[in-house]
Design brief:
Elements: H1 5-24, H2 28-37, H3 46-63, H4 69-91, H5 95-123, H6 127-146, H7 148-158, H8 166-185, H9 189-231, E1 234-239, E2 251-256, H10 259-268, E3 273-274, H11 275-279
Antiparallel strand pairs: 1-2, 1-3
Helix pairs in contact: 1-4, 1-8, 3-4, 3-5, 3-6, 4-5, 6-9, 7-9, 8-9
């Protein structure tokens, strides 16, 4: 049995819908925290506003063509979820945050989207309108895929993968792969090309995760120990009495070889003093 490109496109589109839906649900934990704390301080609404713009543009793009129901289905869901996230964000924002978020929504999701729709309806039609909207939607999608560059920079600077979960990077990479092949099978390069960028950046994120989670961490766990042995080992005089030592009192000499030991003596032997201080 020969599998046609149309059947392959359906399989990829269906997989894309499922993976994309799971990715869209990832902010639920964040908004549950916002709901529990009754405040959105510390979080930004921009990613959800841009996500809503992207979903709206793709929905508009797919509606201009026939046979793009798999694009329409996932972007209807994405539009609803992004609106839901933004409503929660506005509800639990302080007054200044509410005003800023509403202004951003008015600019990105009302004015920008409305301008694109109005101009393309007035000044283009048929295939030309599809191409114009396709370019705009692809540009926004590439910008969204490029957003993790900030996180990549932060990982390199902090040497920590705390803000770059591997599962999310892996899911986004799989999502990019299936939508890329969907675009290839239906000959829609406005769908395929942005997902090439998503795939490359997803691979880069996973590569960095492995480096900083395992290789760099393992090196840091072994190297600092030797470093501390060289730089922090020094004899300290610890009083055996309960009060501040003097020259006549019995003192115990200990060697500190790690910051943890230093913290221990600071907490449980507050009357210790360093050798140079005592001899002076």
């Amino acid at each position: 049995m020969v599998v046609t490109s149309k059947q392959l496109a359906f399989i990829c589109g269906l997989l894309g819908n499922m993976v994309s839906f799971l990715v869209l649900l990832t902010p639920m934990s964040t908004f549950y925290r916002i709901y529990k704390k009754k405040t959105s301080e510390g979080f930004e609404a921009l990613p959800y506003s841009v996500g809503l713009l992207s979903a709206s543009l793709l929905l508009y793009y797919a509606s201009l063509q026939s046979g793009k129901f798999l694009i329409i289905s996932i972007n209807v869901i994405a539009t609803f979820l992004q609106l839901f996230y933004l409503v929660l964000f506005v509800m639990y924002s302080p007054r200044a945050g509410k005003v800023g978020t509403l202004k951003m929504i008015a600019l990105l999701n009302v004015a920008s989207l409305g301008t694109v729709m109005l101009l393309t309806i007035l000044f283009s039609k048929g295939l030309k309108r599809i191409i114009v909207v396709g370019y705009i939607a692809a540009g926004v999608n590439i910008a969204i895929f490029a957003a993790p560059l900030g996180i990549i920079k932060r990982v390199i600077q902090t040497r920590s993968v705390e803000f770059m979960p591997f599962n999310l990077s892996f899911s986004l990479t799989i999502c990019a792969v299936v939508w890329f092949f969907y675009g290839i099978f239906v000959s829609d390069y406005f769908i395929a090309i942005p997902n090439v960028v998503g795939f490359v950046l997803g691979i880069a994120q996973m590569f960095l995760y492995v480096i900083f989670k395992y290789m760099i961490k393992k090196r840091d766990e072994t190297t600092p120990q030797n470093h501390h042995e060289e730089t922090t080992e020094r004899p300290l005089y610890v009083s055996t009495t309960k009060h501040e030592p003097s020259h006549q009192e019995e003192l115990t000499v200990v060697s500190i070889t790690s910051p943890r030991q230093l913290e221990y003596f600071t907490e449980y032997h507050p009357m210790f003093m360093e050798r140079d201080e005592y001899l002076s």
